[in-house]
Amino acid sequence: FEQRLEELAAYREQWGHAAPPLGTPLGRWAYAQRGRKAKGALSAERVAALEALGFGWEHPLDAEAAGGDAEALFEAMVARLEAFREENGHCAVKKKHNADPALGYWVNDMRIAKRERRLPAAQQAALEAMGFEWEARRQCGSAFMVGFRELCEYRDANDSIDVEAAAAREGAMEQEVRLAAWARAQRAARAKGLLSDKRVAFLEGIGFEW
Question: How confident is residue 22, by pLDDT bands cut at 50, 70 and 90?
């Protein structure tokens, strides 16, 4: 605990807050402290030590959303994204964005919402007008993401992801045959325990059936 507390203090000194991104070792430790406090398993001394650093007991994005006004949250985060774009020349905020962790989490949530067709059309249009990138840059070129993105495009065009049934029909398109093979490969990889939980979640988020 003491070592991580020192790391958190150094993080706060560098970034001006004590909310490290969840996808980092320090962020995972911070998440665990929140869980321990919620269960009453964190001593008062440790609670005080964390609070002395300005540590928050809510996930950064949960804290932003505490008011319950989803539209106001969207507008506030868009303003922060615009500021990021002005400074960096693009909207590709990393999920592990130290300067503003809540913004990184929110950008990731917007990508998931679009992929799962939960993002209102007006919000999607507002983001696209800013040059929002719907795939994280580090993932765009992976073989899985290339196939997944093509499957999403097929779904958008045909309102279905049953590419195997489409490929079995006479006169099936080359794309349907290719995507059917890709879909079978994902099922086989999952059956062998070779498909990560993250990729399983990606697929299930668009209605993929195993």
Answer: low
